[in-house]
Design goal:
DNA Cyclobutane Dipyrimidine Photolyase, subunit A, domain 3
């Protein structure tokens, strides 16, 4: 997310300024001409295909705008926690990669795809807050808010959608930050109060020396990762079929 490496085509696809077939043909042509590495171009096209998959699912199942694609999730015990939800929307969860994403979203109307998965997983699985609350927030704030992609991807993370992520896939926001923002370029840009921290503690600032100004000004995690993971696994195991 700290590298400007995405196409930024999603708003233009949503508003019909360019079509997915045009994108597909252009990418295939770039590969044929040797202008695009095949592995990266195929990965890019798979994301275009995922977008069309979500549109197909929504077309045949319009009820998934408000209902779970998998009916067994209808009775899932989501928590109502307004304070935690507000902290998530404001980028004040205490987890730098999550907070950086939410602040980027509020400031620009955009968020890197990997970070979208991280923040969605945090809301759903760490906080056990209904995916519909997160979907509504993204709908209000994303410049590329596309109904099919928004609903489909939130349900994918929740495990309630078509071809969804397994329920036991719970992103660790610390290791995700260390893996995808190892030098802290992204976090330091969007969470500037942590800019002075070393890379070794940037993604877990509570490990910084207590005298550090960053350690005093940045919030403590609103939930402990290990405890939240255990709680989520127990909640998901209560579903039929898991």
């Amino acid at each position: 997310p700290g590298v400007a490496g995405t196409s930024r085509l999603s708003p233009h696809l949503h508003f019909g300024e360019i079509g997915p077939r045009q994108v597909w043909v252009a990418a295939q042509g770039a590969m044929a001409m040797g202008e695009a590495p095949h592995a990266e171009a195929r990965r890019f096209l798979s994301e275009v295909g995922w977008r069309e998959f979500n549109h197909t699912i929504l077309f045949h199942n319009p009820q998934i705008q408000t209902q779970s694609f998998r009916p067994e999730f209808d009775g899932f015990g989501w928590r109502r926690d307004d304070a935690a939800f507000k902290a998530w929307t404001q980028g004040r969860t205490g987890y730098p990669i999550v907070d950086a994403g939410m602040r980027e979203l509020w400031t620009t109307g955009f968020m890197h795809n990997r970070v979208r998965m991280i923040v969605a997983s945090f809301l759903i699985k760490h906080l056990l807050i209904d995916w519909r609350q997160g979907e509504a927030w993204f709908w209000d704030t994303l410049v590329d808010a596309d109904l099919a992609s928004n609903v489909g991807n939130w349900q994918w993370v929740a495990g309630s959608g078509a071809d969804a992520a397994p329920y036991f896939r719970i992103f660790n926001p610390i290791t995700q930050g260390e893996k995808f923002d190892p030098r802290g370029v992204y976090v330091r840009r969007w969470v500037p109060e942590l800019a002075s921290l070393s890379d070794s503690v940037l993604h877990q600032p509570w490990m910084a020396h207590p005298s550090s100004p960053s350690a005093r000004s940045y919030p403590r995690p609103i939930v402990e990762h290990g405890a939240a993971r255990t709680r989520a696994l127990e909640a998901y195991k209560s579903l039929k079929g898991n």
